[in-house]
Structures are given as structure tokens and as C-alpha cells.
Amino acid sequence: MSAPAKLSVKDLNAAYGRAHILFDVSLEVAAGEAVALIGRNGAGKSTTFRAILGFVANRSGEIRFDGADLSRLAPHDIARRGLGYVPEDRRIFADLSVEENLEVGRQKQRPGAPRWTTERLFEIFPNLAETRARLGGRLSGGEQQMLAIARTLMGNPSLVLLDEPSEGLAPKIVEQMIAAILEMKREGLSLLVSEQNLNFAQLVADRVAVIEKGRIRFAGTMAEFDARPDIRDAYLAL
Amino acid sequence: MVYPPPLCGGGRYAIVTFFLVQFVTGLASASSLFLAACGLSIIFGVTRVVNFAHGAFYMLGAYLAFTLASRLAGDVGFWAGIILASLAVAAIGALIEMALLRRLYSAPELLQLLATFGVTLAVEDIALLIWGPEDLLGPRAPGFKGAVNLLGQAFPTYDLLLIALGPLVLALLWLLFRRTRWGVLVRAATLDREMVAALGVNQKWLFTSVFALGVFLAALGGALELPREAVSHTLDLQIITEVLVVVVIGGLGNVLGTFLAAIIVAELNAFGILIFPKISIVLVFLVMALVLIVRPWGLLGRAEAAARMAGGASLARWRPFDKRGRLLAALAVAAAALFPFFAGDYALSVATEVLIFMLYAASLHALVGAGGLVSFGHAAYFGLGAYGASLALKQLGLPMEAALVAGPVLGFAGALLFGWFSVRLSGVYFAMLTLAFAQIAWSIAFQWSEVTGGDNGLIGVWPSAWAESPAHFYWLALALAALAIALLRVIVFSPFGYALRALRDSELRAEAIGLDRHRLQWIGFAVAGAFAALAGALFAFLKGSVFPDTLGIPLSIDGLVMVLLGGVGTVSGGALGALLYKTLSIWVISETDYSKLVLGLLIVALVALFPQGLLGAVQAWRGRDARLQGATP
Ligand SMILES: Nc1ncnc2c1ncn2[C@@H]1O[C@H](COP(=O)(O)OP(=O)(O)OP(=O)(O)O)[C@@H](O)[C@H]1O
Ligand SMILES: [Mg+2]
User: Fold this and answer.
1) Residue B597 lies in a domain
2) Out of A58, B271, B274, B496, which could bridge A15 as a Cys pair, Cβ 3.0 to 4.6 Å?
């Protein structure tokens, strides 16, 4: 890859208190590309995302987004630069209606990033359109996942960190989720998606990074990954 | 104060209308209370700061409105004065938030309480400096000076205005929170601050604006009372207590609940005097205790809002003293024992008092630090100890030695009783219930004058002959305090202490391994109460007397200040914090008339500089040192 990466993480280390979790994690996401970060339970996927966003205070390493250093920025500044985040537990504002949840995510339009409106998002996630006025806490798990993604898209990000979007969802909803992610890609959004579900990752991602015990064990294209069953067996099989 | 009319003449009818007017007056008082309380509630909801300075802002609003409304005079001037005063105080609040609280949002919640307490102290003296000690009576409101006839009783039109204002503000707030983007962001931040930041919202300004709005409401509440009530520099503590009660009854963070609770509290105040004159002072606290026992999160509150406010997580691992530590402690006690050989009587009595407060703070520290139970009413047990000892001596004719046992026994019994209810709650609600119980104990001491002497207290509580000289009494206090503090440490490091700390750190996990939270915390509460009572008993003999203020809110708060200054996350910070704070405050009081200003600013500075407490800061500093040397891979 010659073009400067959209997001590049170099030698990221992170710890919760005294528990050192990430060891020299390096990753790159090019513009318009979808990268899957795959690993087992507890491998460090969520911690990687949270460290990128500045939610893990104890960290070191270089994080660049559109060429700018993120390591000294507050989380809201990072978000305002167009880095969106959909957390694994969705974190819907339970006492706010669907529309209000979307309102919290709203930010102004950003050059070079796809533009989303409530109406367009309701087209992609028709379930949400029917539940506009319902409280976030009253939604089903699948609806909450859709709302979490839609809420982040309301900020018109240019790259989204998606933490395990298929976790705990019914197959039907997973299909919708895949369609939505492909739609986001079509719009030119860059994506870093963490997953345990290999099928899901293969359907949406161009490249793969495998994380295990806080270390990146493999990085390459989807085709390269498919050619390495040993990696799959060593780091991903249960 | 209004008294019921005589029963003759108008008879029944007069009584009914009188009660009606009383009820409507209560409604009018509810408005200001509601304004102040919902300001506190909104601030807490978003920033999780229990803003102790809220009463001070209320008072400032009233004072400033007094000045501005009198200066600006005229019809417009009065109202402009009220609004300008509130805006000015809101600006002051915003500055304090930016300069002080912003540094503390990630510190333990209790620290924010300490900081805002410091602000309260300082503001109180500043108000005294500017407006003097006399009560000030504000101008009447232009256009609302008259009265209307309400069933034959004259009723001030201004009160009617206030009654209308309460629901109006409620409606405006509702619109603000439901219909504006700002309101939606604030509600979202109340639920999940981190997620709001991840969505690109700058919380700094959100917090500052929320704080300013809350302070504005408090100041407006104070300013609007101007035509009804005199302004005085004691208003701050009076209001903060009432406001906390209202907010807790209504449910923290719930504006509608606050509105209902404000009416309940204002009506209790209006009718309490008439119906239960004996317990009027304590009536609201009784009702609050009842509400909390039946609905642990207030009338309309929810469980999440209670969360946290546990004692701080410790920085350094807690360890019992090693050989060196034990030697140092022994040396310190030995050095202290030499003090009477070169100190005069006054210095000795000061030193004795400091020792007593070291024990008091150590007992509170065990509760807050090891137990994670932040009591706002620890003075109750100090006071019970003082009264227990004094009554044993005066009423039962027991000698001092027995009285020093009787005090702790009474304190232990009181803590068993109050603790049983209190440990069923947690967080802010626990803090408020303990406060309520302390107020109840205070009012019993205050009003049961046949036994306690009421406001006049009990005097002539002198030590036995052998302990009468200041030096001897000092040694007695030193021996008992040192033993008791050592015993507290032993308890903290006993299996019982470990269980308490396990519950503090993770209630779920601790309960999963079979620890009975209520029972353990109940015992911990009672034990801490007994130690505080021993301090109280010594205090009674030191002073030769006991008064209701040994049970009062200021003493409870002082205890927390000492603990926090020392560092909650340490094992022995409480005693050291007491040593520092008590010495300092006795010295400052002797040096200046504005001791509160000095102490308040000092507390603010200490908190801002050392958010982990003094001992905590030392430990963190030493810990950093150790890590550099240890250089683990
Ligand atoms: N707040 C925390 N404090 C301490 N340790 C944590 C914390 N959060 C996660 N960990 C630990 O960090 C490691 C990595 O966790 P992380 O959540 O990043 O894994 P993950 O790959 O996202 O797993 P999952 O698939 O379960 O979401 C785990 O061992 C976990 O126990
Ligand atoms: Mg995860």
C-alpha cells in the first residue's frame, strides 16, 4: 500500500491499571477499505478500539488518523475528526427515543465523507423507522445494534470502528447487518470491524488482522488469510 | 412564624381557613425550594457531583438580589435585580466549575464534595465581609405588595406569584430537556458520559453549562425569597440541608420527583410547627428516613442514580505495619507522651482535643475507607458517646471510668439501630439516611430537655480526681486514642476487615462468594460508631460539658474533611488528616476572624493540588519512585 493510510496504529500498548493487555499492536486501514480484526474472546479487540479512542488512559504508541496524531486528543475531538465508534454493547441511551438517540450522534457534514440523514438511515434500517418514538431501552437487541450504527453514522464519519456487530444477533438480523455494512462501504466509508464470526468477516472485509493475547499474529488480504488454515487453527479455533 | 388562632370566636370555620392559608403558604415556599433542589438534582444527574455549595449559591443569590434590587429601585429595577443577581451567581458558579471541579471529575466523588464544602465555607465568610452579620430584609416586590382575600384571610399576592412560578419553571425545564438539542445531549450524558464523548460532544462545555444552569436556579430561588424572608449568612447550611432532603425524597436526578418532594417538605415545615411542635425540627428528616426505607431511591428515582460514591479505591496496596512501621508508630506515640513536659495547659488541652479528633476521624475513616460506606452522620455516634458518658456520670452517678464505657455502649447501640436501616441503602442515599438519623439524634438531644438539658446541654462533666490535671487527662486521651486506633487497624486487617473491603470493591463478587453484605456492613457500622463514641466520651470530659452540636451536621462534615484530607485510599489517612485539620483550624480560628474563608480556600487548594489526599499523594509519589526502581518488563 503506497497511499497514506486512513488510520494507522503503530506499536500500541495499553493497560488497565497494572494489567498489560495490548503489546505492540500495529494496524492500518486504507481509505475506503474494510479491515476485519478477528480474535477470540478476550483477545484484545475491544481494548484496541478503546485505546484508539483514548478511553484507555494508560497507553503508548502512535495513532494517526488522516495523518494527524490522535494520542493527545480528547475522545470527543477524535470523534469530531470523523472517527466513528460503535461499541460492542451498543450503549443505546435507554431513556431517549430512537430519534433522540440519533440526534445525539448528529454532527455537521464533513468533506470527503458520506453524508447521512435520518431519512436515509431509516431506509437502510426500516425497523428503526417504525420505532422512531420508542425508547431506546425498549428495543430488541437487533434494533439496538441498528440504532447504534445509525447513531454513529449521524456524525458523518469517514471511518467507523465497529465492535462485533453480529454478536448475539439472529441470522436474519445478521443478514441485514451485512447489507448495511456493504452499503456503508459503497458510500466510501472506511471500516475497522472486530469479529469472532469468520463468515461475517469474510463477507464484509478486504483485509484481515488476527489478534491473540494482545498481539497481532497475522495481517494480510482475505485471500492470503484463506490460504493459511494454520493461522486459523492456532489463533481462532475454539 | 404563624400561630393558630384561638379556638373561640370564628370557631371551626376559622380553623379550616387558617389551615388552608397555611397550606397555600407552604406551596409558596415550595417554589424556591424546588428551584434550588432541581438545580442540585440536574447538576448531580449529569456531572455526578453532589454540589455542597448549592446552599451558598442560594444565599449569594439572595444577598446580591438584595443589593441590586435596592440599588436599581423602581418597578423594573426590582425584577432586573433578581434576574441579574441570579445570572451573576451563575457566572460565578461557571467559573468555579471551570477552575476547580473540572480537575476533579475523574477523582473520587467524595472529593468533589469536599471541594464544594470548601467553597461553601469561603463564600459564607465573604458574605459576612460584604453584607455584615445582621439579617437583611429585602424590598417588597413592586406590583405584588398587597394581599388578596382568601376565605376571609389576607393572603399575600407575592405568594400567589411564587405558587404559579413553580409549575411554570417545571414546564420550562421540561421543554428545555425535551425539545432542545442541548437538553437531549444533557439527558444522554446523564445516562452514559463516555458514549456521548465518543459521538463527538464536548462534555466540558456541557458540564459547565449544566452547572451554570443549576447554580442559576439556586440563586433564583434565593433571590425570589427576598420579599418573604430575611437574608442571613447562615442560610447556606440551612438550605443545603433542606435541598438535600428534597432531592433525596424525590429521587436524585428526577425533576418531577424533586417538585413533589419540595411540596412535601415545604408543607411539613408549614404544618410541623402546628401539629407536632415537639418534633417539628426533625419531622422532615423522619419523613425522609421513612421514604428511603420504603423506596430506597426516593419517590421517583431509579437505582442507577444511586450508584458509586464509595470510598476511593486505594492507590497503594494496604498492608499492616511492618517492623519499621510499627516502630515508627510506637516512636510517634512515645514522642507525643513527652509533650506535657514542655507544654502549657492551653497547649495541652488543644493537643488533647486533636487526639480525640484523630480517633474520631480514624473511626470514620475505617467506615469510609475500608467499608466504602460514606456516612454523613458520623457525629451522631460521637455525640451519643458524649451524652452517654455525661448521663452516666450525672444521672446514674457512675465514676468517669464507667462513664467512658457507658458512652461507647450508647454509641454502639445507636449505631446498631440506625445502621440496620442505613446499610440497606448505598451511595448518596446511604449518606443521606445517615445524615437524617444524625439530625434525629440531634433533635432528641435538643428537645428532650428534661434529660439532656436541651440547648443548655449538660455541664459539670469532670474527670475523676486522678485524671483531672491537663497533663493526666492528656495521657489518658493519648493512651485510649492510640490503643483504639491500633485496634481499628487490627480490625481493618482481620478477616472481617478483608470481607468489608471485598464488599466495597465489588459487591457482586463478594456476595457471590457468600459474604452477607447487610450483616457485615451493619457490624462494621456499629463498630465504627462505638469508636467514635469513645472519642465523644473523652470530649465530654475534656470540655466538662456536652451540647447538642456534638451531634450536629458540621461535626459530621468535619470528620469527612479530615478523612479526605488524609486520603480515603490510605489506611491511616484519617488520623493524620485530623491532626492537620484540627491543628490548623484551631490555629486559624485564634488568628483571624475570617477563619472559614482561610480554611475554605485552603481546603479548595489542597483538593485541587492533591486530589488523592495528602497521605495518598505521598504514597503515589513513593509508589512512582518504587516503580522506576523496580523496572518490571
Ligand atoms: N476494564 C477492564 N479492566 C481490566 N481488564 C479488562 C478490562 N476490560 C477488558 N479487560 C481484559 O482485557 C483483555 C482483553 O479484553 P477485550 O475486551 O479487549 O477482548 P475482546 O477481544 O474484545 O473480547 P470479546 O470478544 O469478549 O469482546 C481480557 O483479558 C479482559 O479480561
Ligand atoms: Mg470485545
Assistant:
1) no
2) A58
Q: Ligand 1, closest atom to CA A49?
A: 18
Nearest ligand to the CA of A48 is: 1
Binary contact (B200, A155; C-beta < 8 A): yes
Nearest by CB to B199, from A94, A95, A105: name it: A105
Report chain B residues touching chain A, CB-CB < 8 A.
Answer: 181, 184-185, 187-188, 191-192, 194-203
| CA–CA distance, B95 with B444 (Å, rounded to integer) | 41
Is pLDDT at B624 greater than 90 in this prediction? no
Predicted local confidence at residue B356, as pLDDT: 97
Is the ipTM here above 0.90? yes
Does a structural domain hold residue B70? yes
Across the interface, whether the CB atoms of A107 and B200 are under 8 A apart is answered: yes
pTM attached to this predicted model:
0.84
| β-strand partners of A160 | A84, A191
Neighbours of A186 (CB within 10 A): 10
Q: Do B524 and B585 belong to one domain?
A: yes
- Cα A29 from chain centroid? 12
| CA–centroid distance, residue A79 to ligand 2 (Å) | 20
Q: Where are the domains of chain A?
A: 32-56+82-235
Per cent of chain B over pLDDT 70 is 92
Residue of B nearest to A23 (CA): B633
Q: Is any atom of ligand 1 closer than 6 Å to the C-beta of A47? A: yes
Grid coordinates given for B307: 450508584
* Alpha carbon nearest to ligand 1 atom 6, residue: A16
Same domain, B24 and B154: yes
Per residue in B532-576, pLDDT tens?
999 999 999 999 999 999 998 889 988 988 988 888 777 778 888
B194 vs A contacts (CB less than 8 Å) = 55, 75, 91
Residue A166: CB within 6 Å of ligand 1? no
- For chain B, the domain total comes to 2
Determine the pLDDT at residue A84: 95
Same structural domain for residues B350 and B467?
Answer: yes
**B395 and B266, same domain (yes or no):** no
SS3 readout for B21-80: HHHHHHHHHHHHHHHHHHHHHHHHHHHCCCCCCHHHHHHHHHHHHHHHHHHHCHHHHHHH
Query: Is residue B313 domain-resident?
Result: no
Same domain, B78 and B206: yes
Range of the domain at B581: 342-590
Same domain for B371 and B251: no
Ligand positioned closest to the Cα atom of A44: 1
Tell me: pLDDT of B305 over 60.
no
CATH classification at residue B97: 1.10.3470
Give A73 to chain B, closest Cα distance, Å.
Answer: 12
Please check whether residues B408 and B259 belong to one and the same domain.
Answer: no
Does B203 contact A87 at a Cβ distance shorter than 8 Å? no
Q: Which residues surround ligand 2, an ion (CB under 5 A)?
A: A 45-46, 88
CATH number of A32-56+82-235: 3.40.50.300
Rounded distance from Cα B177 to ligand 1 centre (Å): 36
Residue B604 lies in a domain: no
Indicate which ligand has the atom closest to the C-alpha of A21.
Answer: 1
Q: Is the CB of B197 less than 8 angstroms away from the CB of A104?
A: no
Confidence of residue B628 (pLDDT cuts 50, 70, 90): very low
C-alpha distance from A152 to closest chain B C-alpha (Å): 7
